[in-house]
Design brief:
This protein is of the alpha/beta class. The chain has one domain: TIM Barrel. Helix content is about 45%, strand content about 15%. The protein is built from twelve helices and eight strands. The chain has an eight-stranded parallel beta barrel, surrounded by five helices. The longest helix has 19 residues. It binds 1,3-dihydroxyacetonephosphate. The site of 1,3-dihydroxyacetonephosphate (13P) has 14 residues, from strand 8.
Length: about 250
């Protein structure tokens, strides 16, 4: 049985004070949720505020990115052991916004993923096609390439620690969600990739989250798909009411 993971990616939103206010309102709303894991991923500087505000609750905290070196002359970067030391449970890797604006590639995704695992963090590795790629029937090629390049060379014991997030780029922040059928097909394709590379047991065990305009109104139909094991939520995770409705789908 795969335990659903409901994760909020806050992107470049909220101050430390706003993080604390969010948690004060959100924690009571999800206190009774025992059916899933819950995670919020604030910007780096607000991780300590989130860790303090969620202490003793079941809500975990994660980073939105990580560098693969542990330390050194790498101005502006944050390492996996640093995220772990400040209280992170997880880290998002390879988000399409990082790929699009910050030069993330499948090679850097692989390095970041192994660094996160070595530090004891759970990597949430994002894959997904652009609109152009979908419309030219290249979705499966893109997913297979991202999977192979980012995750294919992990050792089986490393792969067992990761979560995959399927986020069609055209559905992010657009209000245009993949239909449950479309998402289900992509998730099934990804699980087949896992089966081919790591075997049946790994395919059954790995959690594949859906991300892209997840809202209280569509989460139930998405979560009803057998291969969808949770959600990576952007905009709707910024509001305690909306994110709690998503968590309690
Ligand atoms: P939205 O939920 O705002 O579409 O963002 C999705 C996302 O990118 C989560 O990582």
């Amino acid at each position: 049985m795969r335990v659903p993971l409901m994760a909020g990616n806050w992107k470049l939103f909220k101050t430390a004070a706003e993080t604390t206010v969010f948690c004060e309102r959100f924690l009571p709303m999800v206190a009774a949720a025992s059916h899933c894991e819950i995670l919020i991923c604030p910007p780096f500087v607000n991780i300590p505020a989130a860790v303090a505000a969620t202490q003793g609750s079941k809500v975990g905290v994660g980073g939105q990115d990580v560098y693969w070196q542990k330390e050194g002359a790498f101005t502006g970067e944050v390492s996996a052991p640093m995220l772990k030391a400040v209280g992170c449970r997880s880290v998002i890797i390879g988000h399409s916004e990082r790929r699009q604006y910050f030069g993330e590639t499948d090679t850097t995704v692989f390095k970041k993923t192994t660094a996160a695992i070595e530090a004891g963090l759970q990597p949430i590795v994002c894959v997904g096609e652009t609109l152009d790629e979908r419309e030219s029937n290249r979705t499966e090629d893109v997913l297979a390439t991202q999977f192979k390049g980012g995750l294919g060379a992990l050792r089986p014991d490393e792969f067992a620690k990761i979560v995959i997030a399927y986020e069609p780029v055209w559905a992010i922040g657009t209000g245009r969600t993949a239909t449950p059928d479309m998402a289900a097909a992509a998730h099934k394709f990804l699980r087949d990739q896992v089966r081919g590379a790591f075997g049946e047991e790994a395919a059954q065990a790995v959690r594949i989250l859906y991300g892209g305009s997840v809202k209280p109104a569509n989460v139930k139909n998405l979560m009803a798909q057998p291969d969808i094991d949770g959600a990576l939520v952007g905009g709707a995770s910024l509001k305690p009411e909306d994110f709690s409705l998503i968590v309690n789908f």
